[in-house]
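Hello,

Our lab assistant flagged a job as stuck in the queue for most of the afternoon. It eventually completed. Since we weren't sure the result was trustworthy after the delay, we are filing this so someone can double-check. Below is the sequence as submitted and the structure that was eventually returned. Let us know if re-running is recommended.
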Amino acid sequence: MRKKQSVHPQHKYKDAFKLGSVSALTDLFVQQSTPFENSEQYFHAYSVAGDRLSDLATPTHIIASLDDPVIPHPSFSHIKGSNQQFSNIQIHMQNQGGHCGFIEDFWCTSWLNKAFLELLSDQVHQPEPSARHS
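-- returned structure --
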């Protein structure tokens, strides 16, 4: 926290040392670092619930984890179970990874960099939609 304060002196992180929970700390960070009033508004803004992602026109890959404590894996079940409404979305559910962890070794190397490159490469090498039907 002290290092973060030195890098971001415009924020008053000294208040964070007095807080007794992660939720209270999250609320403080959200209030000081985002346009949202609290963490509830902040989390709602990037929720995957309901049909919020159904309008995506760009092919989208979501890498998630069964052990994510922030976004529980059942949050994606409506996307995985739908063929039409979420046709541009592929869910890649991992057994482990927590919330953005995906660590593969003791040096904290994340395998996500390689996964992103593979997904992008696959996307770039796909034929154009009009060429697929000719």
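-- support follow-up --
The delay was a queue issue, not a problem with the job. The result is valid. The radius of gyration is 19 Å. The beta strands are 60-65, 89-94.
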